[in-house]
Design brief:
This protein has about 260 residues and is α+β, with helices and mostly antiparallel strands. About 35% of the residues lie in helices and about 20% in strands. Strands 1, 2, 3, 4, 5, 6, 7, 8 and 9 form a nine-stranded mixed β-sheet that branches. α2 crosses α3 and α6 packs across α7. It is globular, with a radius of gyration of 18 Å. The two termini are about 30 Å apart.
Length: about 260
């Protein structure tokens, strides 16, 4: 079995014919935009690409309302993001590329770098650096905010969902995906395990253990009391996971050098 942090690698393996088909009535309970075109890979849970900020350095009314505000002089040298070793960094840029086009995205990335964007190794480094006051704002996944509060409950860290205005693109959401490898030795066990992960009792382990956003109905949303929002509570881009995944190789070609620590 393959499990990935976004649909990107799973979609690449699907294109190469490396995945076994999987069907289940349980998939109908998951929103269509998260499912693969032919049910070869399976969405399990979701994570949202948010902004975290240091509440000592930034007041709530000062938080950037959009990803695209981060190129302004107010944020020069004050923003951190993880490298493309984190697949959600790739997916975030792929969503922008899909909605805004290549010319816009190239200029945006160039403007971020000119404005002193710091690329750190991973999302853990981003959330720690923001909490420590090394940077005012970090681009990361929603659950890193919860992980920081779990590690240090008094951390001066806040969370913001950018691009929520009527004309904005929305905040990207990415699904944890699972797939069965073609030619697997234990096909029945693999299918049974995927079924388990799609049921509330199994899915709960991922949602609660990793602070993920549930795609399965009826599960508790971790962090709801700390400002975390679930599906239906935020504006998201009008993109499927497959559309984002298909652009990830292009993003790596175009911007891999710019997002190296």
């Amino acid at each position: 079995m393959f499990i990935g942090t976004t649909a990107g690698f799973a979609e690449l393996m699907r294109d190469k014919g490396l995945l076994e088909g999987f069907t289940s009535p349980l998939l109908k309970e998951i929103p269509a935009e998260f499912r693969s075109p032919d049910s070869t890979w399976v969405p399990l849970t979701a994570r949202v690409r948010v902004l975290v900020y240091n509440t000592t350095l930034v007041q709530p009314q000062e938080v950037p309302r959009s990803y695209f505000d981060l190129t302004g002089p107010r944020w020069k040298g004050k923003v951190a993001v993880a490298s493309m070793g984190e697949r959600t960094t790739v997916g975030w840029l792929a969503a922008i590329l899909a909605l805004k086009g290549e010319d816009f995205t190239k200029k945006y990335v160039a403007d971020l770098k000119t404005n002193g964007l710091t690329v750190l190794k991973n999302n853990t480094e981003v959330r720690k650096a923001v909490a420590n006051g090394e940077y005012a704002v970090g681009i990361t996944n929603h659950y890193y905010y919860l992980l920081q509060l779990q590690a240090e409950p008094q951390s001066p860290i806040g969370i913001h969902y950018p691009d929520q205005g009527p004309a904005d693109m929305g905040t990207p959401v990415f699904s944890i995906t699972a797939a069965l490898i073609k030619g697997m030795k234990h096909a029945d066990a693999g299918r049974a395990f995927l079924e388990f992960l799609l049921k509330p009792d199994g899915n709960r382990h991922l949602v609660e253990g990793e602070f993920e956003i549930p795609l399965v109905r009826g599960l508790h949303l971790p962090g709801a009391d700390k400002g975390i929002r679930g599906l239906g509570q935020i504006k998201t881009p009008p993109l499927t996971q497959a559309q984002i995944a298909d652009l990830e190789p292009k993003v790596e070609r175009l911007f891999g050098g710019a997002f190296t620590p």
